[in-house]
Amino acid sequence: MVQKYQSPVRVYKHSFEMVMAAYEKRFPTCPQIPVFVSSEVLSEAISNDSSLHVIERSCKLNVDAPRLLKKIAGVEYVYFIQKNTLNWKDRTLLIEAHNETFASRVTVLEKCSYSVHPENEEWTCFEQSASLDIKSFFGFENTVEKIAMKQYTANIKRGKEVIEYYLNELIAEGITEIPRWVPPEQKVPAKPAAPPCDLPPHPTPVSRLALNSLAHSSGKEASNAADPSNPDADKLDAEYIERYLGQLTPMQESCLIRLRQWLQETHKGKIPKDEHILRFLRARDFNLDKAREMLCQSLAWRKQYQVDYILETWRPPGFLQECYAGGWHFHDSDGRPLYILRLGQMDTKGLVKALGEEALLRHVLSINEEGQKRCEENTKIFGRPITSWTCLVDLEGLNMRHLWRPGVKALLRIIEVVEANYPETLGRLLIVRAPRVFPVLWTLVSPFINDNTRQKFLVYSGNNYQGVGGLVDYIDKEIIPDFLGGDCMCTVPEGGLVPKSLYQTEEDLENSDHIKLWTETIYQSAHVFKGAPHEIVIEILESSSVITWDFDILKGDLVFNIFHSKRSPQTIKKDPLTSTPGVDNVQLIEKSWVLGVDYSMVESSLVCREGESIQGSHVTRWPGLYILQWKLTGPASCSSNALPRVDDMLASLQVSSHKCKVMYYTEVLASEDFRGSMTSLESCHSGFSQLSAGTTSSSQSQSSSLVSR
C-alpha cells in the first residue's frame, strides 16, 4: 500500500531571500538533523541572467534502523538524489527528491516548495508532499514501512526548526535583509557589504546576495480569510491548525488536508468546517478511507433530512420545554460548553407517548447542533481550540420506570444516530448519584457506545462527586449547580410527569406535524445493479424549461445520463422479493429501443464516484419526455486489436458483486425562474449552513445546456 503525506502550509515571517540564505546553510551537512550525514553536488547550472539556479545533489542518510535489518540489506547508508530549482525572478524554490538506494524495491518521492506568501510578500510559505511505495524488501516490508514513516515524520517539524535556527544565525551576524533579484540592465550600485558570514563550500547566488545585505525587516499579520479568486486560499496554514484545531502530528495534519482536498473536489461549494472533518478523522483513528466513508454517509444524512436547518425550523412544544430536564449551563474548567441532563427527573415514558420517538430524536439533534455552535464561540472566547462539550448527568430518581422498553428503544436509537453523525463531540460525561438500577441501564446501552466515547465516562455513586476527586476537578466550584450542593443557581428545568392528557395514539403520532417535519424529505433513494439502471421520467410541456438535479452517490461508482424520448416508456418494476423497502429501482428504457431512433442523448455521460455530490441542469430544446438514468460504470473501452486490461476485468467483477446506491432530487423550472446556478434549486438547502464557513456556487450558465459538478 502506498503511504502518502501532505503538509499544511508553514509560514516563515521572513522574506524569501532570507529563507533561501538560511536554507543554503544546511549544506553540505546539517548537525541539527543527525540522519543527514553529508551531501555532494553532482551538477549545477545558472542561467545567464542569474535568475535561475538548478543544482543536483547526492544526499547520504544514516537511517535509524535495527542493525540486523541493515546487515540483511547489506547497506550502512541510504542515498537520495535531490534536485533544487531556484527561481529568483518568481521567488520560488522547487525541491524534488527520490531514493537511489533500493530503487527497484522501494520508491520514495518527495516534493517541497518555498514561495512568497500570497498576502504578504515579506513572508515565505513552505509546502511538502511525499509518497512511499514498498514493493518488496526481503520479507521485512511492514517493518521498513514503519521505520520509514517514523523517521520521516520525526524530521518534518525539525526541518522548520532548522531553517529558523539558521535565520536567527543570519540575524545575529547582522544580516536582516537581502535585496531581491533584478535583471542585469536594472541593477543599481552595490550597497556596503554586511559583516562576513560562513558560506557553504559551493557558492551560490543566495550566498553572494547575502554579502550585500543590510539590516531591515518588517511584516504585517496575514489574514486567514479565504479569497475565492486566490488558488492558495483553501490551503491550511500550520498556525491556523494549532490555533483553531489543536496540536496534531504531521501524519494527522496530512490526513486532514488530504480529506479536505478530496471534499473540495467532490462536494463543490459545500465543504464542512475543518473541525467537523477532524472529528470524523479522530473517530476512525485517522484512517482516511474509513473516515471518508463515515463522513460522506453523515453528509448525505444531513442533506436528506435538512439537519443543517434544524435550529431554524425546530420549535419544541411547550410541555417538552418544561418536562425535558436538560439545558446548557456555562462551561467546565477546560472551557468546554457544559450541558446538564437530569435524567432521573424525566418522565421518559410520558415524553415518548406524548411526543413520539422521531420528534424526541429531532430535539436531541437540535441540542447537538447548538453544542457545535457553542464550541465555536468558546474557541474564540478562550483563545484555544474547543471542539467538544461536557455533559453532566444527574441520575437521582432513576428507577425501573425509566427502563420501559419503548423508552429504552428510543434511547438506543438516539445513541445510534448521534454516534454516527456527531463523533468526538462529547469531551467528557460526568454521571452523578448513580442508583443501584444504573448497572442494568448501562448493560443495555453500553454495547451501542463507541469505545473512544466510553472512555470519557466518569461515574459517581452516592455523594462521591463532592470534594476532591469529584466535580471540582472538572467544573469550577462557582459553576456547580445548586441541586448538587453548589452555589450556582441552575435554570435547567426540573422535569416532572407529562400529563396523560397529552398522550397520543400511534395514528396521531404518524400524522403529527413534528413527525412530518422530520420524516418527509424531498430526496428519494434508489439502488442500481449490474444490468438494472435506475431511471425516472420527466414530462416537459414547454421548450426552454430547465431540468435541475441534485444527487449524492452513497455507494459505488455510477454513470449519469439524460435522454429525450420519442416513445412513452412503460415502467419495468423490479421483483419485490429482491427489492429493498423504501429504496426503488425502476427501468424505463426497453431493450428493444434503439438509441438515436427511439430516444437520444442530450448531455454527455457523467461519471460519478462514490461519495461525490452532483448538481446540474439542462435547458430543454423540445417539449416531451426526458429520462434521467443512473447506471453502473462499465470497463474502459478497448480498441479492436487490444485485449482488455486486467484492472478493468477485476473492477467489473468487483462491481458486479454488489449494488450501488444514489440519493436524488429533481425539479423543473421555467426558464425565467432559472438563475444559472444551484441557488435556483429548492434543494439548495443541502448546503451545509451550520457546518461550512461559506458556500460557493457555480454560476457558469450556458444558453443551451449545463452540467456542473
From TrEMBL:
Gene3D superfamilies associated with the record: CRAL-TRIO lipid binding domain, GOLD domain
Short name of any one Pfam family annotated for the protein: PRELI
Residue ranges, annotated region (Disordered): 690-709
Residues covered by the PRELI/MSF1 domain: 3-175
Superkingdom of this protein's organism: Eukaryota
Residue span(s) of domain GOLD: 519-668
Residues in CRAL-TRIO domain copies: 316-492
Residues in coiled coil: none
Gene Ontology terms: cellular component: cytoplasm
InterPro entries found in the cross-reference section: CRAL-TRIO_dom, CRAL-TRIO_dom_sf, CRAL/TRIO_N_dom, CRAL/TRIO_N_dom_sf, GOLD_dom, GOLD_dom_sf, PRELI/MSF1_dom, SEC14/CRAL-TRIO_domain
UniProt xrefs under PANTHER family: SEC14 RELATED PROTEIN (PTHR23324), SEC14-LIKE PROTEIN 5 (PTHR23324:SF39)
Stated name of the protein: SEC14-like protein 5
Species, as recorded: Paramormyrops kingsleyae
